[in-house]
Amino acid sequence: MSSDEYNECNPVSGWDLHCHTVFSDGTKTPAELVDLAYANGLHGVAITDHDTTAGWNDAVKVSRTRHFPLLRGSEVTAQDGHVSVHMLAYQYDPENEGIVDLFRSTREARIDRARRMVSRLSKDFPITWDDVMSQTKKGGETTVGRPHMADALVAAGFYRTRSEAFAGAISSSSKYYIPTPSPSALQVVQVVRQAGGVSVVAHPGDYSRNRILLSNEQIGALADAGLGGLEVWHRGNGTEERERLLGLARELGLLVTGGSDWHGDGKPNRLGENLTADDVVAQIVERGAILLVS
Ligand SMILES: [Zn+2]
Ligand SMILES: [Zn+2]
Question: How far is the CA of 67 from the centre of ligand 2 (A)?
Fold first, then answer.
């Protein structure tokens, strides 16, 4: 296939480049992720927990045992003007000072925000910070966020499911909500580039996450700063948005990726429901600072 062709259609085989584990808000371990990707006949898989590399080592061990290829990545929450943006970052050097600083400061700000939000919630729902932390599968290693608050509310009997809690007290329009402090998307692109990695805007056409999406101009500016690609094949991107994003990728020379945004049992997304073509993965590996694990 030519480089034009593989960018145009949703691949029927390939890699799932967007997967969460217990190291963020997924319900399965990195080992279970790799095992399931292998069992499902994917060509390879990426681990992309929120704002952390903590699950990498566990995933690497199973990947090596199975000789099943693994890309190492993260999903970084960022902001571009009024738009909240998720940035996937792959194959960067995890010891790079810029990346380490970015994750550390984001993490500290997140914990502070989560504590303040739990204290607001606790006025009407008697849950404690410990109740929320006990919902994280990896304690202090987990990137704590609204899913864990939702789970604590479910455990305390206020809601039946995580989704119900998200539609209620955990909703971004509730009076308990505090926005997540985030670096700018431009900063993330620059830091990831300096750390030798490839950055990709996650689900850029998903109106269920954002009332306003990144404009063509905003994506153009990120591309100028070294953005690597756009996650076109994602369940949240509508047909029209996919067309717009494919056009932009063509125009700006960006890679087109796909991923399921798998969270184990935490969300209905099925592992491998959207995929990235092998040729695109090869380019990510070639540009990346670290070796492909296999
Ligand atoms: Zn996301
Ligand atoms: Zn995600």
Answer: 25
Identify residue 143 by its one-letter amino acid code: T
Q: What is the mean pLDDT of each run of 10 residues along the chain (294 residues)?
A: 57 96 94 98 97 96 97 96 94 97 90 95 96 88 87 97 95 93 95 98 93 96 98 97 97 98 94 97 98 94
Q: What is the pLDDT of residue 254?
A: 98
* Per-residue model confidence (pLDDT) at position 7: 58
Beta-bridge mates of residue 78: 85
CA of 121 to the centre of ligand 1 (A): 24
Q: Which residues are in the CB-under-5-Å shell of ion ligand 1? A: 86, 202
Residue 124: is it exposed, middle or buried by C-beta count within 10 angstroms (0-12/13-18/19+)? exposed
For residue 14, the number of C-alpha atoms closer than 13 Å in the C-beta half-sphere is 25
Q: How many A from CA of 75 to the centre of ligand 1?
A: 7
pLDDT for res 91: 98
Answer yes or no: are the C-beta atoms of 171 and 191 closer than 8 Å: no
- With contact defined as beta carbons under 8 Å apart, do 31 and 58 qualify? yes
Would you state the pLDDT for residue 141? Answer: 76
Distance 203 CA to ligand 2 centre (A): 9
Residue with tokens 């996450």: 209
For residues 73 and 15, the answer to whether their CB atoms sit within 8 Å is no
* Distance from residue 271's CA to the centre of ligand 2 (Å): 12
Strand order in the sheet with 70-80: 15-16, 44-50, 70-80, 83-90, 198-201, 229-233, 255-258
